[in-house]
Amino acid sequence: MEYLKELNESQRKAVENTDGPVMVLAGAGSGKTRVLTYRIAHLIYKGASPFNILALTFTNKAAREMKERIGKIVGESQAKSIWMGTFHSVFARILRSEAEKIGYPANFTIYDSEDSKRLLKEIIKEQGLDDKVYKPSLVSNRISSAKNNLLTPAAYQQNLIITKEDAQSKKPQLGKIYEIYDKRLFKAGAMDFDDLLFKTNILLRDHPDVLNKYQDKFRHILVDEYQDTNFSQYIIIRALAAKFENICVVGDDAQSIYSFRGANIQNILNFKNDYPDTQTFKLEQNYRSTQNIVNAANSLIEKNQEQLKKDVWTSNEEGNKLRLMRAMSDNEEGMQVAHTIFDIKNTEQAMNSDFAILYRTNAQSRAMEDSMRKLNIPYQIYGGLSFYQRKEIKDLLAYFRLVVNPKDDEAIKRIINYPTRGIGKTSMDRIVLFANENDIALWDVISKIQTYPVQIGSAVKNKIIQFVEMIQSFQVIVDKKNAYDAGQLIASTTGILKDLYSDKSVEGLGRYENIQELLNSMKEFSEEPQEEEGAVAKLADYILDIPLLTDQDEKGKEDSDKVTLMTIHASKGLEFPYVFVVGMEEELFPSLHSSQSKTDLEEERRLFYVAITRAEKRCHLSFSTSRYKWGNLIHSEPSRFLTEIDPKFIDASGMAAATQKSGAFAFPEAGSGWKSSSTPSAGASQPTSGTTSPNFKPQRKLVKMPSSNGTANSNIKGDDTSGLKPGMKVEHGRFGKGVVAEIEGVGENKKAHINFDQAGKKQLLLRFAKLNIIG
DNA sequence: GGTGTGTAGGTTTTT
DNA sequence: CCTACACACC
User: Fold this and answer.
1) Can you give the pTM of this predicted structure?
2) Is nucleic acid strand B under 7 Å from A363's C-beta?
3) CA distance A775 to A755
4) In this predicted model, what pLDDT tens digit does every residue of A273-324 receive, in sequence order?
5) Which strand C nucleotides have any atom less than 7 A from protein CB atoms?
């Protein structure tokens, strides 16, 4: 029990009190993961079987890492048996083994958001509705929140509040769409993300024996990030915990940032009402960040009204103040960040992986990527499209899906004419219409196309028959061959490989390589030892839960030394020595949508709180006064959040030019030296490749030059510094005037040690530094 | 039925 | 700016 000594008092109590309901309110950086890890280890140490432990985490990655840490304490074989993962993946697993009870095949398909929206779009059109009024994404959100609140289509249509809302927003048909959508999913043997929770609830509600079984099984339940659970998740947990009430939830209301996904902060606020004899432990000591960071974050979150009282403090060093940076364009902002990273790496011996650049929206990554590339700083983007959502990958996966679950209508529609085989839109429209009108699965129609009175030409019928026969031939082999052999056969027989190979463009090559990458990983999967002697790794097992993987779950992303770029949402639970929060601008952060309502604004503020508290040593906040949006330059104002942090924790010394006319924004310390318009640009940048993971093609091919916005970077040129000698006086755009102390290195590694009057000693690589010789 | 071109519309955040 | 879809042509 050595591990108990590594805990402070409240942490230790949260670990040792393993009986009955426990709520742990864990401030940012207070060792929440450590508590969860040790609590599980402690349970096992005290004799609990790992099979009886259910631990729900927010990402698969978090589950994996926690398992690893537990394994180090109690042994890997024990840790392996714990039921641990996201709500979605754990309950998908349970649903597969109980699927028949609710009328689903065990091989049910999981529709990702794209599949759902395509289906919705089809239904909207079919109903003769305007898809500009009934926007698929909006309809999808509405249905999603209905499901997360456990409203069936019938309940939805009977709910007066909802129907009134829909009527007022001129969308009275939403309930009807939901009803049809739900039917189609069922017919296709498919569940969307929300169904994985919804159907779990149905299963547990309608099958007391099943409920009983899992209540007994999951004798100990732990839920991480409890503040971000929704109603559907809450009911599942409540049902499963009802018998033993050995439930431990861990969370921080100040970090609740997923209400758009149905997360309900009340779940954590009301926990005590559900379990009156709850023991509550507060973790308030922050071990992660410096005093300045903790205090700055506290001063911000104070502005929120609705929260549980907590005093987060730290005994860490005071550290640097949060540094404010101002740029004139998004590109310049990127360059400032890149240069700052470059400098910190030099002066503090930091690794690339010590840095994270966090932003509000994925679209902001581009300027950051460009600047990283220009300074040759390796980086890794998380978020955006995951590998498995790429078109070519989804196409091939659709074949796999169809082979595994022939009722999967979306898969059929996606690939029946890809690669093109003469089954065109008109024919498919007729077939789909016929199938929907008669409530028959698409596969049933096409596999018996001769027997149904669908008006299509005989040539097309023959093509369809060939297609069906091809799929059937795959179905025969799929259980005999391993996933890789089956996958390889399908990829080549269908003509996908050939089709992609024949495209010799850069993008086409990338797509081909992505397919090869998928096949490689299937090979790896197929070569893993199987539990059962002589069994093969099946295609179905490879593909079924792929939609639940995010790109954080992909292999080979973590162990290399790269700067991390991600949205703030994706950064939840992570920590980095150096954090840059970029795009601190009104209408971006807080987002345009959120500035209307108070609760939304409070959520944005919590999001900012999350961003700041990711930082261990230093936190940089940057904004730009203009930004490209859809190719147009738009003006932007500094975020109101910047003024909500107590100024005594902020270093705005580089903000001289910033106060010029941003009325809403004036820092007392605005001072010396720094002119944003003279930020050096990386003229000598080299062509870069290989900065992204080898698994992936860069998403964009072109590196945009900084001069594209016409300002900041274009007209500053450094002097020729090849003859620079110690003793010479120079001027640097950012650091001001200084004297060269020493020249070191040769060629592109030539470096000058310069004592700047204001900025102190710096080492600058001459190949990047724009220096003007002044004496 | 296949292929190419024009244009409308899209950015919160994610399992 | 980029993508997805509608329409016109072959």
Assistant:
1) 0.84
2) yes
3) 14
4) 999 999 999 999 999 999 999 999 999 999 998 788 789 999 999 999 999 9
5) 1-2, 4-5
